[in-house]
Design goal:
The chain is an alpha/beta fold and 533 residues long. Helix content is 38%, strand content 18%.
């Protein structure tokens, strides 16, 4: 069926309306400029009339007759003088123009309180931007702050700086991270703590631009994000940090957000992810979010070292191969994952050698989510068994070619327990929760471009994918739907994303051991557990 052409008003109506608005705005500005003298004179006549009425009201009644006689005599004298009416009209118009002129001085520059704040900030920067043998120092004690700051500053309603551009001398070592950090610390402390600042250094122009960043939204909950296969949304960042946007449901409204996209698969440069944070920082929330997104196109294995049951809602769902909380189940599951990785590699290699396409059972992505492996490592060491992290060597080394993605999450105080293989092959990093600059730099490899704040909401932190730049990130709210503290809106949002299949209710015999009973799906038990010879 042929497509009907759009009406002309739909094709060109928007441009016509925009052009009409611009013409009307230009005409209004031009008319205002032309009629400005008339507006000024009219305003002055109104003010003169008001002053006359006030003068008449203030005149005593017994003297009003004399005033009227004097005014009439003046009008008669002016009428009899040659050119008197014309001169009187010119005089009245001149007086009206003088009274109607707006003589209110325009406010320029900051007030006294803001000037004092700028001067204090200038004095604090003097030791960092000055040397003793500078003949014309830009920064000096008691100097003029306008030479260094100019007019490139802005304040909020509370009188605190929100933007400041600093011009510093050319001899300042702006390439030294330590020198930069000292200046940023001074600006952070003097401009107000508790906010997140961004510092942009222009080494060519000797300028430093400090801006206060707005907090990232925490109202975006778990939902179906519009992404391609192999793309996963880790969270959301600043609008000017990434070039891509996605449409999200933010409460009852729909808006565009800037996502942090992590690409996995055979063409990914960072196929595995490492997450770190303090308790309550949102690492488990991010793991749940990743699990729900991975289930759209792949299978998921979950190993929970803490044993708190944060992933129980995934048990029995389609695509969830296993949810393990015990040491024995974790070892068995990770051993199967290692064999499955080898099987996929062998099957794909044989197909390529024979000139056939890869088998379908090797194309479906497999995700291994390992939360708190350090806790399982301690249990394994106490029991004299193998550390579960050792079973991750094959998936980490060869997972990209086999379509296997590994995500590891642990706490800051347990990062030393991670093996060298895990640290080396997890080049995509996310750090969540309150962390100082040193912790973020040690984990991500480079310092953050902003000043971390001590109080942040859960799921707030920084992300770095490989050798890319550090991005602020806010993880979408993905709580445990079975938790009583979860709101109904968030609970329903998570349940709507779960695939089909009835959840499995775990039952424990009265004489069961202390180690929790793990739940496997039939497809995991029936899958090949050894590599083909």
């Amino acid at each position: 069926m042929a497509r009907r052409p759009l009406p002309r008003i739909l094709k060109g109506g928007s441009a016509s309306i925009t052009r009409s608005r611009e013409i009307a705005r230009t005409a209004a500005d031009s008319a205002t400029d032309v009629l400005h003298p008339l507006i000024t004179v009219t305003r002055g006549l109104r003010m003169l009339a008001g002053a006359g009425r006030q003068k008449w009201a203030a005149t005593p009644k017994d003297r009003r007759g004399h005033v009227l006689f004097l005014v009439a005599a003046c009008v008669l004298a002016v009428a009899l003088i040659p050119y008197g009416p014309l001169l009187a009209l010119i005089s009245v118009m001149g007086a009206a123009a003088w009274r109607g002129h707006d003589r209110t001085p325009a406010r320029t520059g900051p007030d006294e309180a803001r000037t004092a704040r700028l001067q204090a900030l200038y004095e604090a920067l003097v030791p960092h931007f000055s040397v003793a043998d500078d003949p014309g120092p830009l920064f000096s004690h008691g100097g003029d702050w306008e030479k260094a700051f100019g007019t490139s500053y802005a304040f909020d309603g509370d009188g605190r700086l929100t933007r400041l551009q600093v011009t510093y001398p050319a001899y300042f070592d702006d390439g030294d991270p330590v020198s930069r950090a000292r200046v940023e610390q001074v600006l952070h402390a003097k401009s107000g703590r508790g906010r997140e600042y961004h510092f942009a250094w222009d080494e060519e122009g000797n300028h430093l631009l400090m801006t206060v960043l707005a907090p990232l939204p925490t109202t975006i909950a778990a939902q179906r994000f519009v992404t391609a296969p192999g793309e996963t949304v880790l969270g959301f960042t600043d609008a000017d940090a990434v070039r891509r946007g996605v449409t999200v449901q933010d409460g009852d409204a729909t808006r565009d957000a800037s996502p942090v996209i992590w690409r996995t698969g055979a063409r990914s440069a960072e196929p595995h992810l490492l997450i770190a944070g303090h308790p309550g920082s949102g690492t488990t929330t991010l793991m749940r979010s990743l699990a729900l997104q991975a289930l759209q196109h792949g299978d998921v294995l979950v190993v929970e070292g803490a044993g708190t049951g944060e992933y129980g809602f995934l048990t029995g769902r389609d695509g969830v191969l296993a949810v393990e909380r015990g040491l024995a189940g974790a070892l068995a599951t990770l051993e199967w994952a290692a064999h499955e990785t080898e099987r996929r590699l062998i099957a794909a290699n044989r197909a390529r050698q024979a000139g056939h396409p890869e088998p379908e059972d090797t194309k479906r992505p497999l995700w291994i989510l390992l939360d708190r492996p350090s806790a399982l490592g301690h249990l394994a060491a106490a029991d004299g068994r193998q550390d579960p992290q050792e079973l991750l060597q094959v998936p980490l080394r060869h997972g990209r070619a086999a379509g296997v993605t590994v995500v590891v999450a642990d706490q800051f105080d347990s990062l030393d327990a991670l093996t060298e293989t895990v640290r080396t092959h997890t080049r995509a990093r996310v750090v969540l929760g309150p962390a100082d600059r040193g912790q973020v730099e040690s984990f991500l490899g480079v310092p953050p471009h902003t000043t971390p704040t001590p109080d942040v909401p859960p799921g707030r932190g920084y992300a770095r994918l490989g050798a890319g730049e550090v991005l602020r990130i806010q993880v979408p709210a993905t709580p445990d739907p079975y938790d009583e503290a979860t709101s109904e809106a968030h609970r329903q949002a998570v349940l709507d994303l779960l695939p089909g299949g009835a959840p499995v209710v775990e039952q424990t015999a009265p004489e069961a051991a202390a180690e929790p009973v793990s739940t496997h799906k039939d497809q995991l038990i029936g899958a090949p557990a050894v590599a083909e010879g």
